[in-house]
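Quarterly update from the structural biology core.
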Amino acid sequence: MLLVFSKLNLLALLLMQGEVGFDLVSMWKQMGVPAKAVVVILFIMSAWSIGVMIDRWFTYSSARKQSRDFAPAVAGCLKEGKIEEAISVCEQNKKSHLAKVLITGLQEFEAHQASTEIPGEEIDASKRALQRSAAIVNAELKRGLSGLATIGSVSPFVGLFGTVVGIINAFKGISTEKATGLSAVAGGISEALVTTAFGLLVAIPAVMAFNYFTGKVEAFAVEMDNSSSELIDFFLKRRGGKR
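Predicted structure, tokenized:
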């Protein structure tokens, strides 16, 4: 942190003395090839993370919206004992995480209704189907989040690499010009600060988005577990009622 503040102070001096332009174009021109490569890599990482954020946002929003309509509709069907209609409701809400899980349990239960060779087998089969489906849906909901975590943890170090390169170039400037003035280190300090700032700019939103979306996935997982348990309870009551 002290290193960043010291470099900011130095950059302020460079800007005031006109050694480095304040606009991004001037800073880009001052940067060497390694520093530009770092910036390009960080830009790609930023674009990818933004794409994941947008994709996950729409996915979770659609899942939440459809689940709000799906839950009371399927509950009404099950209350009346209409399993086929409940399956149809699930098929109409394909973006709902609850529908993706419950449809497998309902289909498995219905498929075992005609067979009475092993009493209670339809309950166990439905339970296994719900567990498999919940695991698959949970994995789908987490898609891309590991990439956000990786970008959030790696991008500051990528920016730090650019910082080190910039400092090396600053010392090279001193060695080449045989001087210690600000003009000798302007280019190196400029690219060091730009890469540092860019690395943090990429990392902070990625970490915040990862934490936010992880909380969403955990909430969805709880909802899927609760819905699966309620469906198993319904199957048990239905089987008990037939005895």
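The CA atoms of residues 48 and 218 lie 23 Å apart.
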